[in-house]
Specification:
- Belongs to the ABC transporter superfamily.
- The protein has eleven helices and 14 strands.
- It has helices spanning about 45-55, 80-85, 110-120, 125-135, 145, 155-170, 185-205, 215-220, 240-245, 250-255, 295-300, and strands spanning about 5-15, 20-30, 35-40, 60-70, 75, 90-95, 175-180, 205-210, 225-230, 230-235, 305-310, 310-315, 325, 330.
- The chain folds into two domains: about 5-220, Rossmann fold; about 245-330, no CATH class.
- The protein is an alpha/beta fold.
- Bound molecules: adenosine-5'-diphosphate (ADP), iron/sulfur cluster and magnesium ion.
Length: about 325
């Protein structure tokens, strides 16, 4: 049994001035103990709402459906108090902007030690020692002194490291990281990814990483799920997906990656056009207006996600077609 098993997850928001919108539809995936799964897709594709639903953190006009079992227990059916206990204990989270998870009015020490005291009944002194140790592990210099400081006294990259340290300390089963490096410069980004990898390899923490950046997926994830307009369009082992994408949208995302052999100053190819508005209904494939391969059937019938061996995709094209991107043909 997978550690986290998500089955037919849906997220629907009601709107005061119109019909409801489905921002996550029929999404299923599994994360094994010690595994690393990336969820990738453009902004607005439903990545964040997918994890917010798992954690019971949807906005008040949101409603989830389906199942999300952690060690067999359905998170979506849990009472808020029970889910609260799991969050920050068995599941830790880090977000793009660490300030959304840090309280500006409390010292780092207070914020790092509270969960440990609450969930694990550890004494204040012991919790402080463990927090300092965790800060040292993520290479915060002079941790014993810095732990008494407030979040605004840390840089963005340091704040992200503080959150990783806080997660490390709890030794969660799953770490959910939603665009953890998006706001950071490239060097700091690489350090944060290295820390996550270390947490996965050394402690066996399973990682669910959300990003719009295929490069970040390549760095960290063994498996990947590509989302487009609220649905999963391709799922595969990362190496297989990079070697040979089977969905035109995935090929487009890979074409937007910088390549080492590209001429200096070459612009990145991006997929022309924009994703549909949330809740927009089309008869055919949601990607058809932007797809260079679209044919008649694509405008009439929506493709469904179909498994073939270890991967799956939602596209009417034959699986063995060689997809072209600006940076080459994936044959
Ligand atoms: N409270 C809400 N009410 C209505 N729509 C929402 C609400 N929160 C998010 N959305 C919409 O849900 C869609 C998916 O958002 P999100 O999961 O954040 O995308 P991503 O993380 O992939 O960029 C977006 O179109 C967003 O506008
Ligand atoms: S189903 Fe058609 S429009 Fe959709 S991705 Fe495949 S080829 Fe393109
Ligand atoms: Mg998001």
């Amino acid at each position: 049994m997978a550690l986290l098993e998500v089955e037919n997850l849906g997220v629907r928001f009601t709107r005061r001035d119109g019909p409801h919108v489905d921002v996550v539809q029929d999404v299923s995936f599994a994360l094994d103990a010690g595994g690393t799964l990336g969820i990738v897709g453009e902004s607005g594709s439903g990545k964040s709402q997918t994890v917010m639903a798992l954690l019971g953190l949807l906005a008040s006009n949101g409603q989830s459906s389906g199942h999300a079992r952690l060690r067999g227990e359905d998170l979506l059916a849990m009472k808020p108090a029970a889910l609260n206990r799991i969050r920050g204990d068995r599941i830790a989270m880090i977000f793009q902007d660490p300030m959304t998870s840090l309280n500006p009015f409390l010292t780092i020490e207070r914020q790092m030690t509270e969960a440990l005291q609450q969930h694990r009944g550890v004494t204040r002194q012991e919790a402080r020692n463990r927090a300092i140790e965790a800060l040292e592990r993520v290479r915060i210099p002079d941790a014993a002194r810095r732990i008494g400081r407030y979040p605004h006294e840390f840089s963005g990259g340091m704040r992200q490291r503080v959150l990783i340290a806080a997660a490390l300390m709890m030794e969660p089963d799953v770490l959910i990281a939603d665009e953890p490096t998006t706001a950071l410069d490239v060097t700091v980004q690489a350090q944060i990814l290295a820390l996550l990898r270390e947490m996965n390899r050394e402690r066996g923490t399973a990682i669910l990483l959300i990003t719009h950046d295929m490069g970040v997926v390549a760095e960290l994830c063994d498996d990947v799920m590509v989302m487009y307009a609220s649905r999963a369009v391709e799922k595969a082992r990362t190496a297989a997906l990079f070697a040979r994408p089977q969905h035109p949208y995935t090929a487009g995302l890979l074409g937007a990656l910088p390549r080492l052999d590209a001429p200096v100053g070459a612009t990145l190819s991006t997929i022309p056009g924009n994703p549909p508005m949330a809740g927009a209904r089309t008869a055919g494939c949601a990607f058809a207006p932007r797809c260079a391969y679209a044919f008649e059937r694509c405008h009439i019938q929506a493709p469904v996600l179909q498994a073939e061996g270890t991967r799956s995709r939602a596209c009417h094209l034959p699986a063995d077609i060689a997809l072209q991107t600006a940076s080459g043909v994936f044959a």
